[in-house]
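Dear colleagues,

As part of the handover before I leave the project, I'm documenting each prediction I ran so the next person doesn't have to rerun anything. This entry is a single chain, and its sequence is reproduced below.
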Amino acid sequence: MEPRDVIRAIAGPTGDIGASFYFVPETVARAKELGLDGFRFYVLGRGGVLGDVESDVVRSAFGYFHPVVVDRMWTSARQVMAPRDAARAYIECAHEHGCRRFADIEGLAAYVDAASTVINTVEGVSMPLFAGVRAEPVPDDLPAAAMHQAMVLREMRGSAHLLALTALGLASHIAHAIRRPNDIELFGWKDDPPKPTDVDRATWDRAEEITDDVVLPGFEALSDAQADALVAGTAAMHAAR
């Protein structure tokens, strides 16, 4: 497969896999043990790789969300536990989810190898959330490692996409309304819902192309066997998530 074909084949499924542990009962139960609800654990845990920063920093790395929502969730959660501790606990939930869901999948070693090649090749400049989660250690257990790298790949593409939106001058909440129109209220835009235009939609399509360009070096570094393993592993994990 050509590198761009691999990118397109795994982009959507990887997004689903990387987020598949966010609000499962086990993650929500862990949040309660830590004194948080599921949404606050998501915000503090996912953003915690950035460190003990102000909410505007987190919102800049997340995109999409209304700033008031991020500030409320981050600030209140940060009073309960340190962001870096929350990040480690959250990533542990991802690993545990991988162990539960992916233990019977064959070819995970090849998937992890291929994913690691992509992740380690993409430079990551101006992609802080990707850089932050990439810096976290990959576990030795294969199902956990596969989930971990899928999570990192998800943040890689998400960070690259925000970079592309910024380059084209398309506000992230407008982009989110194009991509996920049913989630506008969930992300805090109930009172001021974005109304994308046809020009916005064309710009979003161009942003997707630029996103592919940003991550392309990682996929160009794959051998044919690695590309096949990445696509096959992604499909298997997506089915089992």
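The chain has twelve helices and no strands. Residues 167 and 174 are 14 Å apart (CA to CA).

All the best with the project,
I.
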